[in-house]
C-alpha cells in the first residue's frame, strides 16, 4: 500500500506467482479471455494451457511443449492489461499483477521487501524485471497515470 509518507512497500514476488492466470484479448470477439494452465500447480512456460473467453465462449488449447521447451505462455495473443506510455507498453498479466504494479509504482519511495528465503532468486523478481523507464522517478507520474487508465474488468 502507498502510505501517507509517499512510500510504497510490496513483498518480493516472482513471475510464477502471477503466471497461473493470463488475461488476453479474445482472438474471436476481442472480449475478455483468460489463459489457465491445465494443471494449476504447473505454471511453467512449457505447460499445457487453455484459453477460455468469458464473452463468447471461444476456447483455444496449447499442448505441453515437447521436452519442456519454454514458449510464449500467452499463446501469441495480446495481453489485455496494457498501459501505453511514450516509452513502451507496461504489460500486466492479470488483475492481481496490475494491482501489484500500481501499488509499487505509486510510491515516491519504493520498497520491495526481500524474501527471508535465502534460496529465493534475487534478480528475477517482478520489480527487478521492470524496465528502467518504468521505475525511473522522473517518469513516475506518467507511468502511474497510464497504469491507472487501464480498464479494470474483473473476470
Ligand atoms: Zn470471445
Question: How are the SSEs ordered, and which strands pair?
Answer:
Blueprint: E1 7-11, E2 22-25, E3 32-37, E4 49-53, E5 59-62, E6 81-85, E7 88-92, H1 95-106, E8 109-113, H2 132-135, H3 140-149
Parallel strand pairs: 1-8
Antiparallel strand pairs: 2-3, 3-4, 4-5, 6-7
Bound molecules: zinc ion.
Protein name: TFIIB-type zinc ribbon-containing protein
Order of helices and strands: EEEEEEEHEHH
Name the hetero compounds present: zinc ion
Radius of gyration: 16 Å
Number of DSSP E strands: 8
Query: In which order are the strands of the major sheet placed?
Result: 2-3-4-5
Q: What is the global morphology?
A: globular
Largest sheet: 4 strands, antiparallel
**What's the overall average pLDDT, rounded?**
90
In total, how many domains does the architecture comprise? 2
The number of helical segments is 3
Tell me the helix content: 10-25%
Class from helix and strand fractions: alpha+beta
Concise overview:
The chain has three helices and eight strands. It is of the alpha+beta class and 155 residues long.
Task: Please give a handful of descriptors for the protein shown.
155 residues, four-stranded antiparallel β-sheet, two-stranded parallel ribbon, binds zinc ion, TFIIB-type zinc ribbon-containing protein
Overview of this structure, please?
The structure is a single chain. With 155 residues, the protein is of the alpha+beta class. The chain has helices at 95-106, 132-135, 140-149; strands at residues 7-11, 22-25, 32-37, 49-53, 59-62, 81-85, 88-92, 109-113. The protein has two domains: 19-68, no CATH class; 87-149, no CATH class. A hairpin with a 6-residue loop joins β2 and β3 (32-37). α1 packs antiparallel against α3. It is globular, with a radius of gyration of 16 Å. Residues 26, 28-29, 31, 33, 53, 55-56, 58 line the site of zinc ion (ZN).
Amino acid at each position: 500500500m502507498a502510505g501517507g509518507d509517499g512510500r510504497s512497500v510490496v513483498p518480493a514476488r516472482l513471475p510464477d506467482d502471477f503466471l497461473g492466470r493470463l488475461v488476453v484479448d479474445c482472438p474471436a470477439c476481442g472480449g475478455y479471455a483468460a489463459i489457465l494452465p491445465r494443471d494449476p500447480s504447473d505454471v511453467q512456460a512449457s505447460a499445457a494451457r487453455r484459453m477460455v473467453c468469458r464473452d463468447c465462449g471461444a476456447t483455444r488449447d496449447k499442448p505441453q511443449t515437447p521436452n519442456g521447451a519454454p514458449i510464449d505462455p500467452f499463446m501469441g495473443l495480446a495481453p489485455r492489461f496494457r498501459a501505453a506510455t511514450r516509452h513502451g507498453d507496461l504489460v500486466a498479466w492479470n488483475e492481481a499483477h496490475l494491482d501489484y504494479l500500481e501499488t509499487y509504482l505509486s510510491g515516491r519511495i519504493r520498497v520491495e521487501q526481500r524474501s527471508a528465503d535465502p534460496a529465493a532468486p534475487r534478480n528475477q523478481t517482478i520489480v527487478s524485471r521492470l524496465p528502467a523507464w518504468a521505475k525511473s522517478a522522473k517518469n513516475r507520474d506518467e507511468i502511474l497515470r497510464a497504469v491507472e487508465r487501464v480498464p479494470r474488468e474483473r473476470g
